[in-house]
Specification:
Blueprint lengths: L1 E5 L6 E6 L17 E7 L3 H14 L3 E7 L8 H13 L7 E6 L1 H13 L5 E6 L2 H7 L4 E6 L2 E8 L5 E4 L8 H18 L1 H15 L3 H21 L14 H11 L6 H18 L5 H13 L12 H7 L13 E6 L2 E5 L4 H12 L1
Parallel strand pairs: 2-9, 3-4, 3-5, 5-6
Antiparallel strand pairs: 1-2, 7-8, 10-11
Helix pairs in contact: 2-3, 4-5, 4-7, 5-6, 5-7, 5-9, 6-7, 8-9, 8-11, 9-10, 9-12
The structure holds nicotinamide-adenine-dinucleotide (NAD) and magnesium ion.
């Protein structure tokens, strides 16, 4: 088992990464101070792993109740969070209770938001069960729900007391979801960790075969990168935005195709290649660098070409750019080198158009 620490002063917390962590109560119980625990999960994950979590808690003498959400991004709503509050109130849960999230990013985001709000804030623990949630959403304290008018528009910062990333639970995750998590892993390499890119190039096949030691190392290196970025800029005033590499292009794809048709990680993968393409056109990285990124994404089972019908004009509209607005207004995360990203408005409008046209040709 590996232990990392997210350095946020008195809001800091450990991340445990390894196999069979759900069978190690010592990773969970010390981080639950009160007696009452609500475990939130969903209809897919609960039948697989809920029993183990409940056992650890009841063995330690905790009073446990559960709240099982329907599965899906479309249920990441205030209405469903209200249901969580109802469970807490019906259980007469008080201010020193804890909420534990057992599931992917959707369960984690909603549970964290409920924990931030219930009686103005109760303790929260993360037991992420998707690759994406283990390397991304469970670390950093962003929580929230969607609104009909925008994704993740209602939320709060709420850091957990502990993150328990058991890589064994990824065995039941389907291939598409696994690859989507890999996109965010590759992202950390591209943004700030050139050694990690080289390591991924060497280990991607083992990763795809879900070799436990390799997956655990990838999760650990990813969490270390995210933890460092978050520790430096908890509330995203500046450098935390680097984590959005590929996301502006990707967001346009997700919106155009309707959420759910492309997974977020898939859209980010294609978006990262578009960002690499623009970085090359800007003279910052070589064409070979772009090909390296492309090869790695393909080996990770990810798409690298945007939907054929998306035109540059559509892209710009969905990237929230008014066509009349000067290029300088749009800030993108681009690559100065592989492993060195910058947030910049300093790119040519003409070259951006070329990248968008290349994607749709
Ligand atoms: P998800 O939570 O929808 O999980 C994907 C699917 O896998 C679901 O059907 C889920 O039930 C299933 N699943 C989960 N664990 C499983 C397991 N071990 N075995 C089998 N099936 C399993 O999706 P996700 O990719 O984990 O998270 C996406 C969400 O995370 C989005 O809502 C996104 O906005 C959010 N997110 C938040 C942050 C943040 O910083 N808070 C960062 C990135 C993404
Ligand atoms: Mg993302």
């Amino acid at each position: 088992m590996e232990t990392l620490h997210v350095d946020l002063g008195n809001r800091g917390y450990p991340i445990f990464i390894g196999e069979n962590l759900l069978e190690k109560p010592e990773c969970l119980i010390p981080f639950i101070t009160g007696n009452q625990v609500l475990v939130v999960s969903n209809t897919t994950v609960a039948p697989l792993y809920l029993e183990k979590v409940i056992k650890n808690l009841t063995d330690a003498g905790k009073q446990v109740i559960t709240h099982i959400l329907p599965d899906g991004e479309q249920f990441k709503t205030l209405e469903q969070v209200e249901g969580i509050f109802t469970s807490l109130l019906k259980g007469r849960f008080n201010r020193d209770c804890s909420i534990a999230a057992l599931g992917g990013g959707v369960v984690g985001d909603m549970s964290g938001f409920a924990a931030a709000c219930y009686q103005r804030g109760v303790d929260f623990v993360q037991i992420p069960t998707t690759l994406l949630s283990q390397v991304d959403s469970s670390v950093g304290g962003k929580t929230g729900v969607n609104h009909a008018l925008g994704k993740n528009m209602i939320g709060a910062f709420k850091q957990p007391k502990v993150v328990l990333a058991d890589v064994g639970v990824l065995d039941t995750l389907n291939a598409r979801e696994f690859s989507a998590g890999l996109a965010e892993i590759i992202k950390y390499g591209l943004i700030r960790d050139n050694h990690f890119i080289v390591w991924l190039e060497t280990n991607i096949e083992k990763m795809m075969m879900r070799d436990k030691a390799v997956v655990a190392e990838a999760v650990s290196r990813s969490c270390r990168n995210k933890a460092e970025v978050v520790a430096a800029d908890e509330f995203e005033t500046d450098q935390r935005a680097l984590l959005n590499l590929g996301h502006t292009f990707g967001h346009a794809i997700e919106t155009s195709e309707g959420y759910g048709s492309w997974l977020h990680g898939e859209a980010v993968a294609t978006g990262m290649l578009m960002a690499a393409d623009l970085s090359w056109r800007s003279g910052w990285i070589s064409q070979e660098d772009v090909l390296r990124v492309r090869r790695l994404l393909l080996r990770a089972g990810l798409p690298v070409v945007p939907p054929v019908h998306m035109t540059p004009a559509q892209f710009l509209e969905l990237m929230a750019v008014d066509k009349k607005v000067q290029a300088g207004k749009l800030r993108l995360v681009l690559l100065k080198a592989l492993g060195d990203a910058v947030i910049t408005a300093d790119f040519s409008w003409e070259l951006l158009q070329q990248t968008l046209a290349a994607g749709s040709s």
